Amino acid sequence: MVKNQKLRKITDMKINKLFLSASLACCMAFTANAQEAQGETEYVFQPHWYALGQVGMQETLGEASFGKLAAFNAQVGAGYHFTPVFGARLVLNGWTSKGSISIDGNRSNWKWNYLAPTANITVNLVNLFGGFNPNRLVNAGVFGGVGLNIAFSNSEANNVNQALKASVYQSIEDPAARPDVLHYVWNGTKTRVVGQFGAYVDVNVMPNLKVGLELQANVLPDRYNSKKADNADWYFNGLVGVKYIFGKTHTTRHKAKDVQIVEKIVEVPVEKVVVKEVVKEIPAPLARDIFFKISKTVVTKDEMYKVAEVAHYMKTNPSTKVTITGYADKGTGSMQLNLRLSAQRAEAVAKALKDTYGIAADRITVKSMDESAEQPYNTPELNRVSICVVK
């Protein structure tokens, strides 16, 4: 009797241990599958336009101490971000510049007005070294370019020059014979080439609105401030303002690993549980949008990195194939022209994959829109595109 009870107790303990082991194995398998399925979110950059408006102060380089030649300054402009790092902009800067000269301890000041349209190349340093992240709070970069400085209303400099001529050369009785003290004094409107470079910092306030600070240096020929100094003339601008972005700066894509359980064998001997699991990973689909300029079918250097990403993914996953669908903006040009453009854009991407990156032709399918095809985007310029889907 006692022996039977002991035997039953030992049996119950083994059964409990068996169920505990099986439950633990199931929980571990479920947790691993859940972690694999979570994946991550990927941000895909979208080229976009923006407009800016800024106000601030200018300091003209001269003989006076810092702050004595400060004047109000303003700037408006528009730009386009081609990639997460590189962009271009056209700005119109202007208001007032100041000059100063000291003769025998007596200082004379004057001011004049100007407008300076300037074209810049911009470089986002944060995206260059830290990668593209549209949710980043602060972005910073540098810019440089060239433009024109259109100066006018220089009457104060002329009045100062006349007064100094009468004072310095009073021994010369004939006023017309007295030389200019401001050797490069000018009248009317003068247009000169200006070089510009600087840095900026932007803070994200809302998805399409940024506030920021910009510091810029501008260099012109010696004659800008009416004085002869035998070196270039400089003025420096400090500006604060807002930047408004038109349209979307990015799209999001969820990268997840598809996990397919091919076989799951559970062996249950008397005192142990063996769980064997065979998992096959299937590559997640990859999509890239290759954008084209209006009426063009050539893949630009700024878009070629996306073609390289597609090729790299296909080489890493040799079982994948790509489908390339070309589009054109229906709002621009005739339907016959758009059908031809859409087909040539898809063929251009396919040719780059084959000729530049060595992707086999039997892994590439080329399509293009027909007359009934819907446009992939609401923005016209984004519909000049070839959409690549790899799976």
How does this structure look, described?
There is one protein chain. It is elongated and about 115 Å long. The chain has five helices and 16 strands. The strands form four sheets. Strands 2-3-4-5-6-7-8-9 form an eight-stranded antiparallel barrel. It has helices spanning 2-38, 125-130, 155-168, 301-316, 335-355, and strands at 40-45, 48-60, 70-81, 86-103, 106-124, 138-152, 190-206, 209-220, 233-246, 250-255, 258-267, 274-282, 286-291, 322-326, 364-368, 385-390. The chain is an alpha+beta fold and 391 residues long. It has two domains: 44-250, Porin (Beta Barrel), CATH 2.40.160; 283-391, OmpA-like domain (60s Ribosomal Protein L30, Chain: A). Strand 11 and strand 12 form a beta hairpin.
One letter per element, helices H and strands E, the order comes to HEEEEEHEHEEEEEEEHEHEE
Task: Calculate the mean pLDDT score and round it.
Answer: 86
The portion of residues assigned to helices is 10-25%
Strand order of the largest sheet: 2-3-4-5-6-7-8-9
Number of domains: 2
The secondary-structure class comes to: alpha+beta
Tell me the number of helical segments per DSSP (H or I, 4 or more residues long). 5
CATH architecture assignment of the largest domain: Beta Barrel
Summarize the helices and strands and which ones pair or pack:
Elements: H1 2-38, E1 40-45, E2 48-60, E3 70-81, E4 86-103, E5 106-124, H2 125-130, E6 138-152, H3 155-168, E7 190-206, E8 209-220, E9 233-246, E10 250-255, E11 258-267, E12 274-282, E13 286-291, H4 301-316, E14 322-326, H5 335-355, E15 364-368, E16 385-390
Parallel strand pairs: 14-15
Antiparallel strand pairs: 1-10, 2-3, 2-9, 3-4, 4-5, 5-6, 6-7, 7-8, 8-9, 11-12, 13-16, 14-16
